[in-house]
Amino acid sequence: MKxxxxxxxxxxxxxxxxxxxDPVFGHIIDVIGIKRISLRTRRKVDGQWKLMMMLHNxxxxxxxxxxxx
Length: 69
Description:
Order of helices and strands: HHHH
Distance between the termini: 36 Å
Number of strands: 0
Structural class: mainly alpha
Largest sheet: none
Helix content: over 70%
């Protein structure tokens, strides 16, 4: 991996990855205020994750309407 990243092409690709920010995670952390999963076990974490995604989608619908994609 180090060899790949240290190549010219690898440095170019890696530098582009550093600039990409996933807006969903940024919205969840900054706007909604959820910074970590507070439950344990895969089933509970899955349930909490689905609730966070549902809240994110409901806020998008509330702000932009049903036609927003």
